[in-house]
Amino acid sequence: MSDKTDISRRTFLRRASAAVAAIPVVSMAGMSAAKASPMAEDGHAHNYVADAANADHPDYSEGERCDNCAFWDGNGGCHHADFQGVNVSANGWCDAWVSG
Q1: Which terminus in the chain has less CB density within 10 A, N or C?
Q2: What keywords sit in the KW lines (predicted)?
């Protein structure tokens, strides 16, 4: 076999692998837009409060805060699809809280 054939095959396999790997990412992007919940005027959703001590929601349990939620990114942001591009407080809470 010539080197040119091997390079083309390798290039094809690399590109095909990248395309297959991108399918779930593209699929999830569409799903997050479809599941977005109604936002408050300030961009927050899920009964968000900036101070968990003020949470008056039946799902709230003492000690739950944004900074110990699985969606917390550690840099002052939330990875939840409904909070993309919205500032949240480390001391806050919402009803999408998940043990992290």
Answers
A1: N
A2: 4Fe-4S, Electron transport, Iron, Iron-sulfur, Kinase, Metal-binding, Signal, Transferase, Transport
